[in-house]
């Protein structure tokens, strides 16, 4: 799973930066097209829901998505990890 | 999942940045999706105000009614078809001020409704006038020198009037709020969940909480759990200013009205 902030919905209230126990969200530094400072993700793979949701079979934590007043935070499924084939040329 | 209950084409909603109403809609829809109810048998009602925009963003039948009369309309819906699940979104101006009589009589009759009161201490939509729940000494456009009237305690009112389930949380306590709404939905009879939420635009701007994060921190610091509140009261300590108890206040089984088995 991958954490994603929907830029068309976020209004930049920064509540997610306050509630996340892993401090994954950081206040944004540059405005987007609408002039909203959208929070940045700091190593989002640390999120327990991204890592462990498949293992536990339910949503874990999820406080950021619940407290987000604009329904902008969600998890999107990712393709399973595929090791890259590296061709070594001699 | 709650995403299935949102009318995605109507989002983003019109609430201001950092408004607590969006959080409460999230929590209510999370609880409703946990109950496994069908969208065709669920009705959301609301009166007038910021909070009452909420049913417009939910993909079910909904009624956006006149000011303060949401509970009166909900009573009608429930009496017409007791098999429907009825949830009422309402604000403090809607429930405590103009709809106060409907509210206490719905508690007295114990109709099978779930009422979620988004209490932001002010009339937010019309420009920040003082409401019956504006705390003492707080500024609004109609109380420029600080509110001088004692605010309403909606939880005590509902307990005294006879509701079956009464809880209070803030918009910071999202998990507990979801659980309380779920309990309220599953309890037969009238259930009131009062949610103290932030209004950074109309209330916070005049009371030094302009940033949503500051406001939420204030709510978090001044919400005292009910057990701790009672032990503080018993030991005769002075309560910190602006603090309020949160938690589940009452859960009982008084005779109810509007449940399909009886109707």
UniProtKB/TrEMBL annotation, chain A:
GO molecular function: oxidoreductase activity
InterPro entries, A to Z: 4Fe4S_Fe-S-bd, 4Fe4S_Fe_S_CS
PROSITE patterns per UniProt: 4FE4S_FER_1, 4FE4S_FER_2
All residue ranges annotated as the 4Fe-4S ferredoxin-type domain in the record: 1-30, 61-78
Top-level lineage group: Archaea
Pfam family, one: Fer4_6
Name under which the protein is recorded: 4Fe-4S ferredoxin
TrEMBL record, chain B:
Keywords: Oxidoreductase
InterPro entries: 2-oxoacid:Fd_oxidoreductase (IPR051457), THDP-binding (IPR029061), TPP_enzyme_TPP-bd (IPR011766)
Superkingdom classification of source: Archaea
GO terms for biological process, alphabetical: cellular respiration; organic acid metabolic process; sulfur compound biosynthetic process
UniProt-recorded Gene Ontology molecular function terms: oxidoreductase activity, acting on the aldehyde or oxo group of donors, iron-sulfur protein as acceptor; thiamine pyrophosphate binding
UniProt-listed CDD domains: TPP_OGFOR
Identification of the protein by name: 2-oxoglutarate synthase
């Amino acid at each position: 799973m991958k954490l994603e902030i929907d830029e068309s919905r976020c209004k930049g209230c920064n509540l997610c930066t306050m509630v996340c126990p892993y401090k994954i969200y950081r206040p944004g530094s540059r405005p987007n097209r609408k002039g909203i400072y959208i929070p940045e993700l700091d190593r989002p793979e640390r999120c327990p829901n991204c890592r462990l949701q498949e293992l536990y079979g339910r949503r874990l934590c999820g406080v950021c998505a619940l407290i987000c007043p604009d329904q902008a935070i969600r998890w999107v499924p990712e393709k399973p990890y595929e090791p890259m084939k590296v061709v070594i040329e001699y | 999942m709650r995403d299935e209950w949102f009318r995605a084409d109507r989002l983003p909603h019109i609430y201001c940045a950092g408004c607590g109403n969006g959080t409460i809609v999230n929590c209510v829809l999370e609880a409703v999706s946990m109950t496994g109810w069908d969208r065709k048998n669920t009705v959301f009602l609301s009166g007038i105000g910021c909070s009452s925009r909420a049913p417009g963003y939910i993909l079910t039948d909904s009624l956006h009614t006149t000011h303060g009369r949401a509970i009166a309309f909900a009573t009608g819906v429930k009496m017409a078809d007791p098999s429907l699940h009825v949830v009422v979104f309402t604000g403090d101006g809607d429930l405590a001020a103009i709809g106060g009589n409907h509210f206490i009589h719905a508690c007295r009759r114990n109709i099978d409704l779930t009422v979620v009161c988004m209490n932001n201490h002010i009339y937010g939509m019309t420009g920040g006038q003082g409401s019956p729940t504006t705390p003492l000494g707080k500024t609004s456009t109609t109380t420029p020198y600080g509110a001088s009237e004692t605010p309403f305690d909606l939880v005590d009112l509902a307990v005294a009037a006879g509701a079956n389930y009464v809880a209070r949380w803030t918009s910071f306590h999202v998990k507990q709020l979801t659980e309380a709404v779920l309990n309220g939905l599953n309890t037969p009879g009238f259930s009131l969940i009062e949610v103290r939420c932030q209004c950074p635009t109309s209330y916070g701007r005049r009371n030094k909480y302009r940033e949503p994060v500051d406001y939420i921190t204030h709510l978090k610091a001044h919400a005292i759990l009910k057990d701790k509140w009672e032990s503080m009261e018993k030991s005769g300590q002075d309560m910190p200013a602006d603090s309020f108890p949160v938690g589940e206040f009452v859960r009982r089984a008084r005779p109810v009205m509007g449940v399909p088995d009886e109707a």
